[in-house]
Design brief:
Blueprint lengths: L6 E5 L4 E5 L7 E4 L2 H21 L15
Antiparallel strand pairs: 1-2, 2-3
Length: 69
């Protein structure tokens, strides 16, 4: 299981749950249910990491909860 922070919000316009993974730039997905959105996030995180490695880019380590000043 990936340990990246997931930011989940409801999109009234789309009628779907939207998931952002702030530690992985541009990494986001959605789902019709909360559970589907989280499952999709796990898939997209794996794909993001695989693509980054293929391109020789660094993969950030999960930090868990982000601290904001």
């Amino acid at each position: 299981m990936m340990r990246y922070q997931l930011v989940i919000s409801w999109s009234k316009a789309d009628g779907r749950f939207v998931v952002e993974i702030p530690e992985l730039p541009g990494c986001m997905t959605d789902g019709a249910t909360h559970e589907e959105a989280v499952a999709n996030a796990q898939i997209i995180i794996g794909e993001w990491i695989e693509t980054a490695r293929e391109l020789g880019r660094p993969v950030p380590q999960p930090r868990g909860r982000l601290a904001y000043a």
